[in-house]
Design a protein that fits this description.
Helix 8 links the parallel strand 13 and strand 14 (300-305). This protein is an alpha/beta fold. The chain folds into two domains: 3-174, Flavodoxin domain (Rossmann fold), CATH 3.40.50.360; 187-354, Aminopeptidase (3-Layer(aba) Sandwich). It contains eleven helices and 16 strands.
């Protein structure tokens, strides 16, 4: 696994730039890499501005870069350029501080007019520092990043999907592997399989769920780590089910259910890959879980989703789940959003899944 240094050059707290970096850091960590942060606003101002590269804290930050295999550089856009904080830090580095390293540049800004800052302002500087490979990078509009009081963020899909893609390409470059473009999925050829959480095919689902949860809620706890429910609850012998959608050897989506009460199954761990969303795969998973629940003798489904998962709530409403809360209220004031659905007859479910 690689050691990846991240550079945060936003001078402010809270910061949408740092929120984007937090999301990317979670993706990197989910692939087993060690992430070492460099937060420039925490470095002493005087040695930064006076060019004292020998100051212990400045030297320590430079040493982090030296030992890293790859680097993620983030910046807010001010005055049509990257931040001055990043400029003064880069100026203090040795001439080839990034020699041979794979670099991913990311920027945030208030208007699309600044979208070329990465290519025309930041990339030449990274090249001059000897970067071996500079990824495509991405510019995220500030309006696509929602910050919550007390921590947590919600990325608009317009930002999260391409951000996930460029991070995935960056990881491929770090590993020395060719970037594989995601081919369109032939939905009719997607296979639904019953599995267990412990199966290797389940790993992408479980890893990405952690990436989804922790940035949104700004903390790591038993819920974001998927440990609030024993994995054995999803085994068939415990009246549970774990369903994956597979295509050409890849896991695209999945979900699980477990016993909630004598007549009700609880849906858990719904997930669709960032690269394959808005193709009806979530609805397919729900249909497969519905069929599994009928097979197990359940009469209804119950689930909860977090208040910061609007796309999940929209999916459940579209799939016929009835909200057990005031849909006009602010989700943040409710907490977990509960849904329930009565199951149709088994024959009706079989016809629905087959179609």
């Amino acid at each position: 696994m690689a050691i990846i240094a991240t550079i945060s050059s936003s001078p402010s707290v809270p910061s949408r730039t740092d929120a984007v970096l937090d999301y990317v850091t979670k993706v990197l960590g989910s692939h087993g890499h060690t992430v070492t942060p460099i937060v420039l606003r925490d470095l002493p101002a005087e040695p930064l501005l006076r060019g004292r590269a020998d100051h212990p804290e400045i030297a320590a930050a430079a040493a982090v870069l030296e030992t890293a295999d790859a680097v993620v550089v983030t910046t807010p856009v001010y005055k049509a350029a990257y931040s001055g904080l990043l400029k003064v830090f880069l100026d203090l580095l040795p001439q080839y501080a990034l020699k041979g390293k794979t670099v991913l540049p990311l920027a945030t800004g208030g208007t699309p007019a600044h979208v070329l800052v990465i290519d025309y302002a930041l990339r030449p500087v990274l090249t001059s520092l000897g970067a071996g490979s500079i990824g495509q990078g991405w510019f995220v509009l500030s309006s696509h990043v929602r910050l919550y009081d007390g921590g947590g963020l919600l990325l608009d899909p317009t930002a999260s999907v391409p951000l996930y893609q460029v991070t995935r390409s960056f990881l491929a470059a770090v590993a020395g592997e060719p970037t594989v473009e995601s081919a369109p999925v032939q939905v009719a050829a997607v296979e639904a399989v019953r599995a267990r959480p412990e199966d290797p095919e389940s790993a992408p689902l479980l890893a990405d769920l952690v990436v989804e949860y922790t940035p949104r809620y700004g903390q790591t706890n038993e819920n974001t780590q998927l440990t609030e429910v024993p994995s054995s609850d999803f085994h068939a012998e415990r009246d549970g089910a774990f369903v994956l959608l597979r295509y050409c050897g890849q896991t695209l989506a999945g979900g699980a259910l477990r016993r909630y009460d004598e007549h009700t199954a609880e849906v858990k761990q719904m997930w669709t890959s960032h690269l394959h969303r808005r193709q009806g795969l979530g609805r397919r998973v729900l249909a497969e879980l519905e069929a599994a629940a009928v097979d197990l003798g359940y009469r209804s489904l119950y689930l909860t989703t977090g208040p910061r998962q609007p796309e999940a709530a929209a999916l459940y409403l579209a799939a016929g789940f009835e909200p057990q809360f005031d849909v006009e209220a602010d989700p943040e004031s409710i907490g977990p959003l509960a849904f329930r659905k009565e199951l149709p007859a088994s024959n009706d479910v079989a016809l629905k899944v087959a179609s």
